[in-house]
Specification:
The structure holds two protein chains of two kinds.
Chain A: H1 9-22, H2 30-34, H3 36-39, H4 47-50, H5 56-60, H6 64-67, H7 75-79, H8 82-87, H9 91-97, H10 102-105, H11 107-129, H12 139-146, H13 148-179, H14 185-211, H15 216-223, H16 237-260, H17 265-273, H18 278-306, H19 310-314, H20 325-334, H21 339-376
Helix pairs in contact in A: 11-21, 12-13, 13-16, 13-18, 14-16, 16-18, 17-18, 18-21, 20-21
Chain B: H1 7-39, H2 55-63, H3 66-97, H4 103-115, H5 118-131, H6 138-162, H7 166-174, H8 179-208, H9 211-216, H10 224-233, H11 240-262, H12 267-271
Helix pairs in contact in B: 1-11, 2-11, 3-6, 3-8, 4-6, 6-8, 7-8, 8-11, 10-11
The chains are: A mainly alpha, B mainly alpha.
């Protein structure tokens, strides 16, 4: 943003007044001016005044006629030449009319960043996964799907992720339905946001102490005679499951709550007035309206549970029943230094997530169509 | 919104409250057991430890090199917050004010890093960063942490920008303000609540961001949460109480910022990442 706009203030003010009123979102900006070499006439009287305003304003307010000049007349203005400039919209004007101007350029740093550090690594990983250390281009995938130690991780992860997700979502709905009637929700939501903020590592450490053989849970069980010996709750499947509930339920609940509170209460009141009872109102009015949000909640919760990593290592049995797919990918990358194999596992992980999410969102359209129309009618 | 008064409805509602209370009880007891353990001397088969001490904190402070870790955490979090604001707010402004071809594609581009879990894209990302010799350094950690936070800032800021009357900006333009001046003197002051909320959320999320930091950090660029993971992972090497002492330090660090953040944002916003 190089131009000092104050200096061009007075002479261009009249032109400026016109522009915003006619096309508010297309106000010329100094950034548009920086684009000058690309498409603006180089014959501007002074570099500063030419930037965006002196030249831009007449075009920013195109008389309908000028805007419709045949495209054949375009190349000349781009090259320059004062005469043609009057009659044909410049490149910049045409771009601006399509919403591309200096302000739009502000999106570029962010986009470039995401492309460079998200899209590029992903594509790089995809290509890398087809360049195994040894064997043909599919060798990594062949190895993965022929070695039970590796392909079992998918099943093990699903065995943890699916029950945890379903439990969290099924519990979230009635709780959210009740909580939306509360006046002071903030205390409850604040308490529930704590485990999300603390993160899975701390929840894992906390549960190790809390659920451990000397922890308070086993203390209660022994004290009340519910168990003869301390129950083993950590370093196995249940430890990971409980950690996914402790950190997953608040997440699912807060998402569900935001969808539940988004439903217009008038709809339910109308149902009640027509004699529907609470159960009917829920299943025939609320639930159909909730399904789209619920599908997204399910998808997000599942994807989170499927990518469980720290708690599977710390609270689970990472060599046995909780050797989840992310552990396999991590081991390949940072213990065997086989980045190609690690990328292949990461791609398989992404593929399973995408498959389930697409299935969920697809099922949403199937489920949603019927009841929703009857609910609205 | 209706309240039922029948017996069945009351039982149902009681059942739900019992469930919620049970969850919260366990949650608070879990946190309390960490705190109690970190202050306890010996704790075997009793409800509470035999005695109280603070020596685990001094032990953890020296053993885990907490001063250095806290400094790294501060640097990583600070740089992530500032850079994601600088990249995200202008992008959000452009997204909110302009309709350009391919805008929905750009929106998808910003949504994806928030939907895909960090461990999935973290492994290819770490591979690329290792190739660029950035992983293991503090800059690699910062870059990795920016991947989800830049889109997060964009998506949070778009509605904040949209609610500003475009005529305010038009007026500023009329009086000759360029984009930079418009940002500094008009938009940033008007957007302060939104920017504050977005950056505080970024802060809270970055302090707790485990996967990306874990995959890209070297021995000198560990943040608090990664150091905590390694401490728990190598439990048995050190007394459990000093690990819990470290966990308490981490908890306090996180919760202070959470409390500050909650003065400006709604708790659901911490979760509501996929919503526009």
């Amino acid at each position: 943003m190089p131009a000092d706009p104050t200096r061009e203030g007075p002479p261009t003010a009249p032109a400026g007044t016109g522009a915003p009123r006619a096309v508010p979102p297309n106000v010329p900006s100094p950034l548009a001016g920086t684009g000058a070499p690309r498409g603006t006439p180089p014959n501007a009287p002074s570099p500063l005044a030419g930037e965006g305003r002196g030249e831009g304003a007449p075009h920013a307010n195109p008389v309908p006629g000028t805007a419709r000049t045949p495209p054949a007349a375009q190349p000349p203005p781009a090259r320059g030449g004062g005469a043609s400039l009057r009659y044909a919209p410049s490149m910049r004007t045409r771009l601006r009319n399509r919403g591309l101007d200096g302000v739009t350029l502000l999106v570029i740093p962010g986009v470039l960043f995401v492309v460079a550090l998200f899209v590029y690594p992903f594509l790089y990983g995809l290509l890398l996964s087809f360049e195994p250390k040894e064997g043909g281009w599919l060798a990594n995938y062949v190895t993965f799907f022929s070695d039970p130690f590796l392909y079992d991780t998918i099943g093990k992860t699903l065995l943890i992720a699916i029950p945890a997700t379903l439990l969290n979502v099924v519990l979230s709905i009635p709780v959210a339905m009740r909580v939306r009637l509360m006046r002071h929700q903030k205390l409850l939501t604040t308490i529930l946001v704590i485990p999300i903020t603390l993160g899975t590592v701390l929840v894992a450490e906390g549960l190790l102490t809390y659920l451990g053989p000397r922890g308070w849970v086993n203390r209660v069980l022994l004290e009340f005679g519910l168990a003869e010996h301390p129950i083993r709750l950590v370093h196995n499947y249940w430890g990971v499951m409980l950690s996914l509930i402790i950190s997953g339920f608040p997440f699912t609940f807060l998402l569900t709550l935001s969808y539940v509170t988004g439903i217009d209460p008038a709809l339910e009141n109308a149902g009640a007035m027509l004699g529907a009872r609470a159960r009917e109102r829920f299943f025939r009015i609320i639930l159909p309206l909730l399904v789209p949000g619920l599908a997204i909640t399910l998808a997000l919760s599942f994807v989170q549970a499927f990518s469980v990593f720290p708690s599977a290592v710390l609270l689970g049995a990472p060599a046995g029943p909780t050797r989840v797919i992310s552990i396999a990918a991590y081991t390949a990358a940072f213990e065997q230094y086989d980045y190609s194999m690690a990328s292949a596992i990461a791609m398989i992980m992404a593929a399973v997530q995408v498959l389930i999410v697409v299935a969920l969102l697809g099922a949403r359209t199937l489920v949603f169509r019927g009841p929703a129309s009857s609910g609205k009618g | 919104m209706r309240r039922e008064t029948t017996l069945g409805a009351r039982l149902w509602s009681t059942l739900i409250w019992v469930l919620v209370a049970f969850f919260i009880l366990n949650l608070l007891a879990m946190i309390a057991s960490v705190v109690v353990n970190s202050f306890g001397t010996r704790w075997f088969t009793t409800w509470l430890p035999a005695g109280w001490t603070t020596r685990w904190y001094t032990l953890a402070w020296d053993e885990f090199q907490l001063p250095q870790i806290l400094l790294v955490t501060l640097e990583v979090v600070g740089a992530t917050v500032i850079l994601s604001g600088l990249l995200g707010v202008p992008a959000a402004y452009a997204m909110a004010r302009r309709d350009f071809p391919g805008k929905s594609l750009v929106l998808l581009l910003f949504l994806l890093p928030l939907m895909v879990p960090p461990i999935t894209y973290g492994i290819p990302l770490a591979t690329v960063l290792y190739q660029a010799h950035l992983a293991g350094t503090i800059w690699g950690v910062i870059l990795a942490n920016l991947v989800p936070t830049v889109p997060f800032v964009v998506l949070i800021m778009i509605p904040f920008v949209e609610q500003i009357d475009p005529r305010v900006e038009a007026a500023a333009r009329v009086f000759g303000a360029g984009t930079l001046r418009l940002f500094v003197q008009v938009l940033v002051p008007l957007l302060t609540p939104g920017i504050l909320a977005a950056l505080l959320l970024v802060l809270v999320r970055t302090v707790a961001m485990f996967e990306l930091t874990f995959l890209t950090a070297g021995p000198t660029s560990q943040t608090l949460v990664v150091a905590l993971y390694y401490a728990v992972f190598a439990a048995g090497v050190r007394p459990g109480q000093s690990i819990d002492a470290m966990a308490v330090v981490y908890m306090v660090t996180t919760l202070i910022w959470l409390l500050i953040a909650l003065r400006f944002v709604n708790p659901t916003q911490i979760v509501g990442r996929a919503k526009r």
